[in-house]
């Protein structure tokens, strides 16, 4: 395409031409000023991704399309206000760049450019995962682009000997479009070249000499292309946003996916610990799940069917089976506690159930919906309190709850009531805490807010990953009360390291070790099944440990040592055949000659059961 092209120089001289700020500071500065909003949008988008805020929003029901539309409108509105501010102040202060051209033309051209800038930032954001890197890159890009406009692009499009196609090609780079706009709106480059230039007017838009029409077309085409590319990368890119995509491959090719699952199942069977078949309670749970899969029962909100997660080994490391074929069912109105040592696979299980990672094989049904196919629908009915607080530092606690409440379709008075109730239930209401920015919250306050977020809007299934970690005793009690009253009409799946919490909150408990359930039942059942013992704790002077052990074995030959820590020893003694009075007498007599500082006899606790189950299965899996 060959364009006739006008340079500044040939413009006809005017009578007077006072030196203008836009001439003094140059076009470069105006390009910077307008592009300044680009790194801001970019870093904001990447921040939401890096902090997994988008993930948590999605888990609370904010669909992809809604997220993109809201974010787009938000950044477009801010960019528009910023441009209005620039043009208004520029005009008031007499800057000819803003004053000479028709405001309607300026509106159309700047509006098109800021749309392009927002869509370009959206596309760029898909390639970054670190906010700081994105921000630095964004600013360097802004500065570099303006300089390139001045020293690379300008000489080319001012060179009459070069074909116009070269500059058109360069205008495909969005900052050069902006440079060209500023160039065309600006008075001539030097007051020495006095011209009759009076800005760009409505009728000039179709004049090929100023290239405005071409730029508008380029910007419109690029805007649509960038948005489409963003959608494509976001939808089909590999888990960039921390959210597994339930891509249509699952829908359209279910047979193939189930075939793949079967293949993986066969390979994984080799890894399943052999103790699995010995655990009658776990086997019974597996049968219940099979029964529920055959005859559905709406009372069961969560059904995990042989769920497996294998992390593939990287950098020469072996693959890791985090969850090894877990079958589990949780009824509505029930709180199910998952206990397990570090690395047992609790978080991996929750991550699969919340769509954060993809199961290697097997699946789970949440209120009848398959996590492989219907995650977007599932998100509308679940609440999540992740292991790490995913909050906006700049918003208040109340604003967080208002936002998530709206996502859960609460409106008006009902929303206000729910938010206040929620804040009170986690002790974040009094003293104006609710209206403080989250940046000023302590770790415990953030945790309580995360729990409140997971419960707002009446979700039918709630996942809580170590909800009370880092809380002081009073806050923990308040949180437990909130969870207790919340579980009435919903299923709660909770992971914890606190036995006290598991006993206080959970109707059923599963102990998980090495990715598989070792036992399942309520705390009384577990203590009775795996307990059936007394626990004897003795603290004696240093060096007397062997003598104490001998004494205990004389009282109960079947006694087992649980641990020995600097003079304190714990023994497990089968109840059968043991006479408590004899133990009392023997320990009192031994107090003086064995230097026993303290001793105690108690029923086995859940913690004892946990230690026994965890260490037993560790041993069996070695
Ligand atoms: N992304 C990953 N890549 C590779 N291995 C992983 C990954 N995430 C977890 N693992 C491994 O999977 C196992 C289970 O981890 P997971 O975080 O699910 O355990 P957990 O029971 O939640 O532990 P904790 O109580 O410490 O939170 C661990 O051995 C862990 O190292």
UniProtKB/TrEMBL annotation:
Residues 302-539 form the ABC transporter domain. It is a multi-pass membrane protein. Keywords: ATP-binding, Membrane, Nucleotide-binding, Transmembrane, Transmembrane helix. One of its GO terms (cellular component) is membrane. It comes from the Eukaryota. The chain crosses the membrane at residues 21-47, 67-95, 107-128, 215-233. The keyword Cell division does not apply. This is ABC transporter domain-containing protein. It comes from Zea mays (Maize).
